[in-house]
Amino acid sequence: MTARMRQAVLSAPRSLELREVEIPTPGSGELVVRVDLALTCGTDLKTYRRGHPKLPFPTLLGHEYTGTVARVGAGVSAFREGDPIVAAPSAPCGDCSRCARGLENLCQHIDGSTMAFGAFADYLLLPTWCAATCSIARWGSRSRPAPCSSRWPAWSLGSSAWT
Ligand SMILES: [Zn+2]
Ligand SMILES: [Zn+2]
Fold it and tell me: What CA–CA distance (Å, rounded) separates 147 from 155?
């Protein structure tokens, strides 16, 4: 029997469902992270209220978090199971004019296919492009929130409270 996990899915504006899905299996170069703490960013809130042009429904929320590497896919050597990490939600291309000016957060090539959302869940799959970049860093303490998150905790394992 396949292990299951909880995952929040936004199916429409203001329609957030808690689903039970299979824990993802990492492919080559990928990581599966156990989410230790995820916070609510303004982007999550705006997406919840009105949707987001780059995140078509149904979509996953939660992209500012800390976690622990639960499984590593083939070919992953920079991370091991048990590593505490923090990850950025997107991977800039590094080639466009904005990236060249140091404005990676405004990269012209970031869209829904290059964003790793879904931290409002027990586990999160970090795809190859994300796991392969420097947007993942080891984090010293599992109890600390992601550094650029808003103040309102939305998901904390061991608690079913949403705020
Ligand atoms: Zn954010
Ligand atoms: Zn770019």
Answer: 16
- Tens of each residue's pLDDT in the chain, 163 residues: 679 999 999 999 999 999 999 999 999 988 899 999 999 989 899 999 999 888 899 999 998 888 899 999 998 888 889 888 887 777 777 789 998 998 877 888 877 667 788 999 999 998 766 655 444 555 554 444 444 433 333 333 333 333 2
How many Å lie between the centroid of ligand 2 and the Cα of residue 135? 14
Q: Mapping DSSP to helix (H, G, I), strand (E, B) and coil, where does residue 95 land? A: coil
Rounded to two decimals, what is the model's pTM?
0.75
Domains of the chain by start residue, with CATH: 4-153 (3.90.180.10)
Nearest ligand to the C-alpha atom of residue 117? 1
Beta strands, E only, the chain: 4-12, 15-22, 31-39, 59-60, 64-72, 84-87, 123-126, 136-138, 153-156
C-alpha of residue 156 to centroid of ligand 2, in Å:
32
User: Cβ(60)–Cβ(118) under 8 Å?
Assistant: yes
